[in-house]
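Deliverable D2.4 — example input (structure tokens):
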């Protein structure tokens, strides 16, 4: 186990589309949070050496920089790093939190990769999303990160927004590329139950995302990013050169990882476990000296096979194909449709294939299972 995820659940406000496990707080209870992580570090078996640490949320950049420094110091004391100079430490940050001082403090604390939640460069759209920042702040945040010495910055954008917003996706891509991030993550809007967005759609105040717009914007992004030198290495993620997210790549390569904090998941190669999701419940449980693990699931052979197919097809490394006569007609039909290509003994999705990833995984799983 060489990969550690730490969930920092606090957000200043809930975004209109978000159903993550978060705690909306004006003031982050940093001291209580750090005390919980300290205790959890003692409960978890120390890994042999960490290659990556990912601080996700929530909004990890809401944690005061001195608290973030303490957090990373505690982790380093409890868990050895394989190579302190080479470990990847990612911080998810929202633009409104990125000041020159904060960025410098994060660098000093050892953070060497920032994933910035820009989402759009249209202020009207950002207000609709209930984001705290405006477009100008994303540019300022980016420059502050560069000035502090960050040479590995990722930018998140959301596409396939409701038609009535008249969001100019092409313009947003131009603005994102103009910042020259090393990495881009592009997520299509999904409607999750119990979000403001779901309520707006139910009462007719917003239209549900439509498949045609989703496909058009996704394929346009592929074209634009390819021309700018980026390569998609996963269905939603593209990088310049070797600037892939090493942490997320470990998930997609089915490697074990540990998770700390509310709602964090861990995986040891055969079983998954996850922590209590609600911050208060997690805090009370840990403070009472009990384990915060909510549940554990041993993966069945069927689940492992489904996982292997899904993880393989979602990345540009593709899925290792076993020579099987049963598979050949399906793969031939997919290739003719332009959804996959074969590279050696691996099946790799094209952008058109990634658009129908769930359907391809379902068909392949059914065929593999002989059903
Ligand atoms: S900042 Fe991120 S985690 Fe927080 S509410 Fe918005 S989308 Fe959800």
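Example output (designed residues):
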């Amino acid at each position: 186990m060489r990969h550690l995820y730490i969930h920092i659940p606090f957000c200043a406000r809930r975004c209109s589309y978000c159903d993550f496990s978060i705690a909306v707080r004006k003031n982050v209870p940093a001291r209580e949070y750090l005390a919980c992580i300290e205790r959890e570090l003692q409960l978890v078996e120390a890994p042999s050496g960490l290659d990556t640490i990912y601080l996700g949320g929530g909004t990890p950049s809401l944690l005061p920089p001195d608290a973030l420094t303490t957090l990373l110091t505690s982790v380093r004391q409890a868990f050895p790093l394989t190579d302190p100079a080479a470990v990847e430490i990612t911080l998810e940050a929202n633009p409104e939190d990125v000041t020159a001082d904060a960025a410098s403090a994060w660098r000093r604390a050892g953070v060497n990769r920032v994933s910035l939640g820009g989402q759009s460069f249209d202020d009207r759209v950002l207000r609709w999303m209930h984001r705290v920042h405006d477009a100008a702040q994303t540019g300022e945040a980016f420059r502050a990160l560069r000035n502090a010495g960050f040479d590995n910055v990722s930018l998140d954008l959301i596409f396939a927004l409701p038609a009535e917003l008249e969001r100019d996706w092409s313009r947003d891509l131009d603005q994102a590329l103009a910042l020259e991030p090393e990495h881009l993550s592009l997520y299509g809007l999904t409607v999750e139950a119990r979000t403001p967005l779901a309520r707006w759609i139910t009462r007719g105040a917003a239209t549900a995302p439509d498949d045609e717009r989703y496909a058009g914007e996704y394929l346009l992004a592929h074209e634009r990013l390819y021309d700018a030198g980026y390569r998609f290495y996963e269905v939603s993620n593209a990088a310049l050169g070797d600037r892939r997210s090493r942490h997320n790549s470990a998930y997609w390569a089915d490697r074990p990882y540990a998770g700390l904090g509310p709602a964090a998941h861990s995986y040891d190669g055969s079983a998954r476990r996850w922590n209590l999701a609600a911050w208060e419940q997690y805090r009370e449980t840990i403070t009472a000296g009990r384990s915060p693990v909510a549940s554990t699931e041993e993966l069945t052979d069927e689940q492992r096979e489904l996982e292997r197919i899904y993880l393989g097809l979602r990345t540009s490394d593709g899925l290792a194909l076993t020579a099987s006569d049963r598979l050949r007609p399906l793969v031939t039909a997919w290739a003719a449709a332009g959804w996959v290509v074969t590279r050696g003994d691996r099946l790799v999705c094209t952008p058109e294939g990634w658009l129908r990833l769930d359907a391809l995984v379902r068909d392949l799983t059914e065929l593999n299972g002989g059903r």
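The pocket of iron/sulfur cluster is lined by residues 11, 14-15, 18, 20, 22, 57-59, 94 (CB under 6 Å).
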